[in-house]
Amino acid sequence: MTTIGVYDSGIGGLTTLAALMRRLPRCSFRYYADNARMPFGTKTAEEVKEAVCRALSRMRRECDVIVLGCNTASVTADPPGVFKLRPRLDEEELSSVLLLATPLTLSRLRADYGGFMSADTGELAVLVEITASLRYKGRRPLDMSVLGGYLSEKLPRCAPRRILLGCSHYIYLSREISRLYPGASVVSGNLRLAEEVAEALGEKPENDGLPALPSAAEEGARVKTVFTGEREERKYRWLLSRLLTAPPESL
Fold it and tell me: Rounded distance, CA 28 to CA 21, Å?
């Protein structure tokens, strides 16, 4: 069985993991949560590169395929031989794109591209982590609407045709972002990334009769989570189970 390793600083990459699990039901997974160093987006490039290098040295020993479910790690460290979640700005009409990303991701991409709209959302990944933890502890639905006021204040008054979510933590806010820009499509990149991994592994498309949603038992057997900081297995399982039953387009 192929083992796929997914890396992120926290819960954001669980959205990538869920997309991969749906697309690749015959694979097993290791999720590497570098939560001791979360958040990445406000760190220096050198700090992020060091963290990614440390993680990859272990992942390459334990996994057949490596996926970075972190846009900041992907565009900053940009390691070879791994699959990366990152905004595909080279395929976009930049003047019609609103890119929502961490400060470090924005700075790296502005150096290569430019011309896209953006917003100052430096603390948003941490707010998503805190909100998810509170919802878990209260055993309440995974509802991020409490951050709607923050988004309304921080996001620009503009009319983009496409909104690229350049941080996997922001994917939890897809619904709230869509409400602010009702005519725009919101793109995370996870479904496309899952297809790229499936193609590299020679897996057939989803319509070949393979199950789209793993059961809870299969989910537990297929995923091992590794933490660099506090061990939060129960919270991560809780979040993953909700992502696996969410509409695919929400990933």
Answer: 8
